[in-house]
Sequence to fold (355 residues):
Amino acid sequence: FDWFQPDDFIFVETLEFLCRHNFRQVTSDIIGFTYQEYIERNARNRKGHFLTPPDVVDYMLDLLDYAGPEVIGRRIFDPACGSGSFLVHASRRYRQALITYFCNTHSVTTEEQLYANEEWRAEIARRYLDDLASLFFGMELNPFACYLAEMNLLIQGLDDLAVLQASGDKQPVERFQIYNTDSLNLPFEVLSSNDITGIVRPVLVPDRLSYRLTDDAHPIKAKLDSYVSGFFYIISNPPYVNSRQEMMDVDRFKDRLFYQSVLSGDTNLYLLFLRLGLYYLSEYGQMVYIVPLTVFGDKSASAARQLLTTFPFSPDMITRFYRGDILFPGVDQAVGIVRVRHSQPVTTVSISGGE
Fold:
């Protein structure tokens, strides 16, 4: 969408129109809703892209145990983030966790009492903006969706930016951790590794400036610097597309040892994203994905099921939906949710279902 260059008159007219609306009362992912409404439905269906409904997002975050002060300081990652629905909802929960933490720290009981102290209010604003810009990670191939995800995160911090600006403590947000990149395109050294669990030996990837320049997500993909341990929380609704639905360079994945471990038939993108999630999952972390129901019994997913039950990975929760249009009205998509833990062996799997 970089071809669209509105002139100054249209730009000012648009801002004037938007200024009439009170966005303070908007609680939903309005940018994601706009993305869903105006990106042509058939194209999105063909590419397996669905905006996850807010109640499903919250349900998945509940399964991820993403709530309370224990989330503070821990990174969350969506390798197919779209317009950022999971990250937006997580950021709201994170802010509430900060409020609880500061209430306990300053021995007060309500958010209003915290806000009554200007110094404490500014402290909350600084901490939230710092964490919003450093703990919420997303990768997305569509550049327009990346713009929306960044804008969505920015909206979450507007009140805190206003507080700091009013106090004279201007704090620009340099960037959010949203990367316009092909998540599946990992460094050659990683793709050539046959260590499917990541615990035998670390993969050494050269840290070259040229790699960082061509893909600013390279340090994350190569697990360099502070990313060596991966992500404690991983959540996603990856695309579900196989080579019969859309032209794909299947050999690009089948010829790589990294992806071979999860392929036993048709190459479906959701299987590749499952493999990707396991690669990034940190010790004692957990991952929650929406996946097609075929993962639970189809032959093409047999390798994935074997990998998901190979130490240190342990699937411990499965939910299936009994309605096919749970993700998008009018689109019949048989899907469920799977939760996988790292370094926490479990002997039972909780199975549930519902509308």
Remarks:
- The beta strands are 76-78, 136-140, 177-180, 231-236, 281-292, 313-321, 335-342, 350-354.
- Residues 85-105 form the longest helix (21 residues).
